[in-house]
Amino acid sequence: MTEKISVEKKVLSENDKLAADIRGQLKQRGLVALNFVSSPGSGKTSLLEKTLSALKHELRVGLIAGDVQTENDANRLKAAGGTIVQPIVTGGACHLDAKMITRVLPEIALDKIDLLLIENVGNLVCPSSYDLGEDMKVVLISTTEGDDKPLKYPGMFRRSSVMVINKIDLLGTSDFDMKRVKENARRINSELKVFEVSCRTGQGLDAWFHWLKSLVAAQH
Amino acid sequence: MTEKISVEKKVLSENDKLAADIRGQLKQRGLVALNFVSSPGSGKTSLLEKTLSALKHELRVGLIAGDVQTENDANRLKAAGGTIVQPIVTGGACHLDAKMITRVLPEIALDKIDLLLIENVGNLVCPSSYDLGEDMKVVLISTTEGDDKPLKYPGMFRRSSVMVINKIDLLGTSDFDMKRVKENARRINSELKVFEVSCRTGQGLDAWFHWLKSLVAAQH
User: Fold this and answer.
1) Which domain CATH number covers A148?
2) Which site among A125, A142, A175 would you substitute to test the B interface, given the most B Cβ atoms closer than 10 Å to its Cβ?
């Protein structure tokens, strides 16, 4: 196991170097970059579709859509009006890493965008360890998943700056308690900014769009 | 990367040896063992709670509840009437492995149980590579997750023998299509046995319980 751990450390330290380099490139252009993480099925692609549709006439958005197999998500995002959508198929790997981002970054015209949104692989564990050079991680959780998730997957909630609670239209169909999920999340990370949304009904999305625009505006 | 891959291969081959040893121990006692895998929040613990409550007077069930942090799941399963519930807290690792099972197996009185149920870490990617010595993997998916999950996480659906579709009481609240999820799953694995259940309403659970009992009966 010692050998495995030392290789992991080496991989992570190489990843951090590449991520710092990516961060430098993005900063130089005044670009905001967000890394979206969650369980499979929490609604990362739905949130990105809605975001793209709402903001495409106001902001220039670039997207990187990571997936284990298939380019389904990238295709959905292109259909939602994405002009710069770059798929990454990890081919089995359980997370995106900085090397994968470095490889596709030349495909994205960084001087033509204001905001870079990266959709990670659906996984609440592994992506938390890999810095992609983003400004912050946004963790999604949905009301159908159980309000104990922040306690059970603390690494991800600790390393995220924002928590988006999706599927609030389904509140009441399970024992999910909105107050409890926030308490659980803030026990792990007292600084978490929280949005409550339904990508299906649109509820709460305006506050999310407004915040994204203010993030970009703060760079200019 | 070559170094990383060779270490991974070595880890997996050591895991397979330990898993074969576990499988031998279980077979010798005529025990059936199932490894439950899914995204976080699909309802693994709920399904195990219901299963335990329903079968505890007919079958002697042992449970291993894996989690990244917390013993929440193990505590829920004890409260549901589990007499043999062994938690494994992986402390950050994204999957259970055979070494963790080997370590806790002496805590479980194998000659006092008929059925061993292992709840893996919530993760649709990594646990697929780690044989725990089980007879089969049972993959859960819930109707709130999206019917494309089998295509997006094919490794898990390929290596599972059974797919339990949970939260059927919420059908109609999203675009999830029951026919399509089965087609998608069977494109990956034509042999998958499918159960449709709601742990909340109890719908479909009888067929699941019946199948578990027939599995155990077949060993005697």
Assistant:
1) 3.40.50.300
2) A125
Closest CA to B96 of B212, B18, B178: B18
Asked whether B106 and B50 are in contact (CB, 8 A), the reply is no
pTM: 0.93
Q: Is the ipTM of this complex over 0.85?
A: yes
The answer to whether A143 and A58 have CB atoms below 8 angstroms apart is no
Domain range for B102 is 2-218
Tell me whether residues B39 and A167 touch, CB distance under 8 A: no
Look at residue B3 in the predicted model and tell me its pLDDT.
Answer: 67
- Rounded to whole angstroms, how far apart are CA atoms A168 and A152? 21
Match 């699909």 to its residue by tokens: B42
Residues A65-96 have pLDDT tens digits of 999 999 999 999 999 988 899 999 999 899 99
- The tens digit of pLDDT for each residue in A132-185 reads 999 999 999 999 999 999 999 999 999 999 999 999 999 999 899 999 999 999
Contact flag B149-A124 (C-beta cutoff 8 Å): no
Cα–Cα distance for residue pair B123/B141, rounded to 1 Å: 11
The SS3 of residue B138 is strand
Instruction: Using CA coordinates, name the residue in chain B closest to A170.
Output: B173
Counting the structural domains of chain B, the total is: 1
